[in-house]
Amino acid sequence: MTASHDRRDRSSTERSQDIAALEQELARVVDEAEARLAEVRRELAERRQQEAQHAEIDRLEEHLANATVQWREVGEFFEEALKQLRGDREDAGAEPSTPSDDPGTGSPA
Amino acid sequence: MTDVVPQASVTTANTSQVEPKRLRSPFERFGLTGRPLRTVNWLGVVAGVYVLITAVELIGSGFKAATGDTAESLFAFASNPFVALMVGVLFTAATQSSSTTTSVTVGLVAGGLPIQIAIPMLMGANIGTTLTNTLVSLGMVRDRESFRRAFSAATVHDFFNLLAVAIFLPLELAFGLLERVSGWLAGASSGADGGIVATLFAAIGTVVDTVTEPLANLLEAGTSFLPDPWHGVLMIVLGIGLILGVINWLGRLLKVLMVGKAAQMLHSSVGRGPISGVASGAAVTMMVQSSSTTTSLMIPLAGSGTFSLKQVYPFTVGANIGTTVTALIAAFAFTGAEGEVALQAAFVHVMFNVFAALVIFGMPLLRQVPLRGAVWLGDVAAANKLWAAAWVLGVFVGVPMALIGLTVLL
């Protein structure tokens, strides 16, 4: 009875050890697969980016023809920046009189 | 290492219906195509180099005629190296061509401008030339993310060149590093006891001088109706005008002629390391004779995310080196003692850019500085356009003018 109980205990311990080892092995395989997958994804992304780069280089003539300052765009940029500067100033000027900002100290316009 | 970044189309949505812009040779209007057009284009390049060298020679003679033996007193205002630096920045920013500044400086040095004044001017040319791609990046402001990437890609050039000046100008002032190295190189390649290289350079110089002298003399005679020093001043102005025109002309023709080779070079550098990036940047810039063009062409590609900042950076460093060839060509305008100092000025530009690449790009810690600066500026400029405006106006206009103004007033 005791011997058979011991055998059962041993086999149960061995089984749980086997399961733990199997789980460990499976976890290792999954980790490896994930690492490999990440590597493949990275390589794929790199390859896609390189393909995109080659495609742009194929259009080098167009890019070289466009590689000049577009003064209209520069002018538009500075106009927008100026507008933003004026807007910021107006906001800053309006801030003290905004009652919601500081209801206690709001000065009359 | 390749940064994977979101992809976007380089062109705008409606571009598919628009005929893509194409490089055109000025000779196409005469109905030339194929091999005859190519031959005429190359002849145009030869003529352009001829005019470039003649114009540099004209500037040298004009400077001599304008100053007599008082070149130093004429440029006394620039004897402060920071002012000379700012003169280089402003002149290059105004002409959008560092090749023009370096060629003019080579001519001025041959005409008597002290090399100590020319060195900061040549360094300033490096800073001034970065304005062009920065202005190109402003055109991408409509899309915030594209603008962030494009502005970073443009200003990595600014930061690199500013850092190069911050390192090498103090070294120059303290030890005369570039003056010594360039003097040795010029002596070795043009002096009487310089061996085979000097003999070869002298022979080329003599041939070039003989060929270009008639046109230079003609232009000199054509301006002689004015008394000195105005005769000299007119020669300088004419020389600068010719250089500006001919650099533009050479750029147009070389782009048409070299686009295939440049594309081959770029294709072969894709997926390779940063050294390959530096080499391709240098080679493409030598082919089209303009660092502004090569650095500007990368801006939309960086803005779209096709090329990462880390890939654009070495290409930009290479462009700095590639553009120094123009000054070397310009130095062939002179022979003898004039030729030696002209060559020295050209070597200053070469060595400054080579040293900058070795020191800044070669040292991992320093290499990160322009990258971090550009990333930070790109981020803040994308969030608030006023940062971009302040950078452009401050670095390329405000600070140079303020420094020059203060020196003149005080």
Automatic annotation (TrEMBL), chain B:
Keywords noted in UniProt: Cell membrane, Membrane, Transmembrane, Transmembrane helix
Gene Ontology biological process terms, A to Z: sodium-dependent phosphate transport
Record has 4Fe-4S as a keyword: no
Membrane topology, from the record: Multi-pass membrane protein
Localization of this protein: Cell membrane
Domain of life where this protein originates: Bacteria
GO molecular function: sodium:phosphate symporter activity
Pfam family, one: Na_Pi_cotrans
Residue ranges crossing the lipid bilayer per the database entry: 42-63, 75-95, 115-138, 159-178, 230-250, 270-292, 312-334, 346-366, 386-409
The keyword NAD appears for this protein: no
Gene Ontology cellular-component annotations: plasma membrane
The name this protein goes by in its record: Na/Pi symporter
Originating organism: Isoptericola sediminis
Organism ancestry: Bacteria, Bacillati, Actinomycetota, Actinomycetes, Micrococcales
